[in-house]
UniProtKB/TrEMBL annotation, chain A:
It comes from Paracoccus denitrificans (strain Pd 1222). CDD domains: TM_PBP2. Signal peptide: none annotated. The chain crosses the membrane at residues 20-40, 73-94, 106-131, 151-179, 200-222, 260-280. This is Binding-protein-dependent transport systems inner membrane component. It is a multi-pass membrane protein. Keywords: Cell membrane, Membrane, Transmembrane, Transmembrane helix, Transport. Belongs to the binding-protein-dependent transport system permease family. CysTW subfamily. Residues 69-279 form the ABC transmembrane type-1 domain. It holds the Pfam family BPD_transp_1.
From TrEMBL, chain B:
Residues 60-248 form the ABC transmembrane type-1 domain. Belongs to the binding-protein-dependent transport system permease family. CysTW subfamily. This is Binding-protein-dependent transport systems inner membrane component. InterPro entries: Bact_Polyamine_Transport, MetI-like, MetI-like_sf. Gene3D superfamilies: MetI-like (1.10.3720.10).
């Protein structure tokens, strides 16, 4: 069957060529260009093609970069924590308490808000949480408060709430899939061997669900750290995150090598954190086999 | 009794997910110009204002052009990727599929900025064409996922039967496989259309001076006077996307039923 295999391989490669070609041209090539640019020098309005590490040195020495990167990491970490903790019971409910025919319906209901009008949803959170916003004006009309609540005004807290809302469905799906894979007889075995319901959850369900939790954490953490819209709208541009800084460096200041170095550094930091996170959870991830 | 607490929590959670969307129509029909309680009186003025707005109409035309083109392109590329990954083994399959799926997890700012830098250095003029380029890229992974489910649930013996009955590889694909995965294709088209219509970052960086609906909305959010109209526009957009997604879900389920597979639910 050697020739059969070869023709299978050839057919597979022919089929994958168009999407692969597209991804290489529109994704891989631009990413490599950014990488190359980050080692070039910036001349005024041009890029001088000479190898230098100066951009990276400047990025690492820049206190503004430290502050913004740290803020992005803290916001993304808080959003990840909030989404995963809030999403877990929902995923658990979907997997264990909802009848099989209704599961697809629930999943559909949960994912709908994710696909609708991201921009307007972010803006609405600003309106809901703002100085004269829905919460403050509503509470004032009811006579519960006299002064507006300030801890939710245009700051890191309001960004975390907004982003946690935006990425909530992304956290539910991987956890749900991991829970669905759990062999239900293992849980029964736990109960039969005299474990309480809580202990069975702690010693059987949770460890088996960990791969889903890890996937959920990463799938929320990585896009939120690069979010551009929320800091721009909620923070009014005054509390930028890393995406806003990259954009400013690339376009407003037109320093492409520096902007590229920023982007590459940020991606490296995110990659390292993700790998450390996966390594820390290796014990749980091995369960899968 | 076990599920009751969890069910209550899930319902509250669902309410939290829908809260902003539910506020949209309330303020779209409120005659007050400030988005706050208490509400004033009922009005349809903002919808009228929206209808008469010329730059909004232009943004809509651009957005529809982009979304239709990107969804067709992404779905075509997705068909290739899904067919290759579900039916064939070839060297480097893992990394290749990884690259195609990468836009799912890569922050959009990285995708758009790097594409922008390349386009500018090649001297390409920014237009809706460059947005289509970007949107096709980010819709491709979703199309591939949806179509892979469709191709995966195909019974291989149907295809083999077609060969045995004398069909060529191409005619078997057209006559047997394509009709069976058709619901998946429609679902992928609608999904990609919805994603492209709602996408902001790539349109913001790659559209040049051409407005799309999200970039138009973004530019208007700075003007308090325009907000009620944006609420009206948001209401229309939300209703439209819910409609499209419902149709997409209907076709996805029908496709699964057609090939006799078990419904695992959800788009991912």
């Amino acid at each position: 069957m050697a020739s059969g295999n070869r023709s299978q391989t050839a057919q597979g490669l022919t089929l994958i060529a168009p999407p692969l070609g597209y991804a290489v041209l529109v994704l891989a090539a631009p990413l490599l260009t950014i990488l190359a640019y980050s080692f070039f020098k910036d001349g005024y309005l041009t890029v001088i093609r000479e190898f230098t590490l100066e951009n990276y040195r400047a990025v690492w020495a820049d206190p503004i970069f430290h502050r913004i990167m740290l803020r992005s990491l803290v916001v993304a970490a808080l959003v990840t924590l909030a989404t995963v903790v809030l999403a877990f019971p929902v995923a658990y409910f979907l997997s264990f308490a909802v009848s099989p025919q209704k599961k697809a319906m629930w999943l559909f209901l949960i994912t709908i808000p994710f696909w609708t009008s991201y921009l307007i949803r972010v803006f609405l959170w600003k309106v809901i949480l703002g100085y004269n916003g829905v919460i403050n004006s509503g509470l004032k009309t009811l006579g519960i408060i006299e002064q507006p609540l300030t801890f939710i005004l245009y700051n890191v807290n309001s960004m975390v709430i907004t982003l946690a809302h935006a990425y909530a469905p992304f956290a539910i799906l991987p956890i749900f899939i991991a829970l669905e894979k759990i062999d239900r007889s293992l849980l029964e075995a736990g109960r039969d061997l005299g474990e309480s319901r809580a202990m069975t959850f702690w010693r059987v369900t949770l460890p088996l669900a960990m791969p889903g939790v890890v996937a959920a954490a990463l799938i929320v953490f990585i896009p939120t750290i690069g979010d551009y819209v929320t800091p721009a709208l909620i923070g009014g541009g005054k509390i930028p995150m890393i995406a806003n800084m990259i954009q400013a460096q690339m376009l407003d200041l037109d320093n492409r090598p520096m902007g590229s170095a920023l982007a590459v550094t940020a991606m490296l930091i995110v990659a390292v954190i993700s790998l450390v996170f996966i390594a820390l959870n290796r014990r749980f991830l091995r369960v899968r086999q | 009794m076990k599920g009751r607490g969890l069910r209550a929590y899930a319902l509250v959670y669902l309410l939290f997910l829908y809260a902003p969307i539910l506020l949209l129509p309330i303020f779209a029909f409120n005659s007050g110009t400030i988005i706050a309680f208490p509400l004033k009186s009922f009005t349809t003025e903002w919808f009228g204002q929206m209808w008469g707005n010329a730059s909004l109409r232009r943004a809509l035309t651009n957005s529809l052009t982009i979304a239709v083109s990107a969804s067709i392109l992404a779905t075509c590329l997705g068909i290739f990727a899904a067919r290759a990954s579900t039916r064939f083994e070839f060297p480097g399959k893992g990394p290749i599929m990884g690259l195609i799926m990468l836009p799912l997890v890569l922050p959009e700012i990285i995708v758009s900025i790097s594409l922008l830098v390349v386009l500018l250095s090649l001297g390409v003029k920014l237009s809706i064409l460059t947005v289509i380029l970007g949107h096709t890229l980010i819709c491709m992974p979703y199309a591939t996922v949806i179509l892979s489910t469709a191709f995966n649930s195909l019974d291989r013996s149907l295809e083999e039967a077609a060969y045995d009955l004398g069909e060529t590889r191409i005619s078997a694909f057209r006559l047997v496989i394509l009709p069976l995965v058709m619901p998946g294709i429609i679902s992928s088209l609608l999904m990609s259309f919805t994603i492209s219509l709602d996408e902001f970052i790539i349109a913001f960086f790659l559209a040049g001076n051409e407005p799309t609906l999200p970039t138009y909305i973004f530019s208007q959010l700075r003007f308090p006077k325009q907000i009620p109209m944006i609420m009206a526009l948001g209401t229309v957009l939300v209703i439209m996307s819910i409609l499209l997604l419902t149709i997409a879900e209907y076709f996805r389920r029908r496709g699964i039923a057609k090939t006799g597979a078990k419904n695992t639910g959800g788009f991912l």
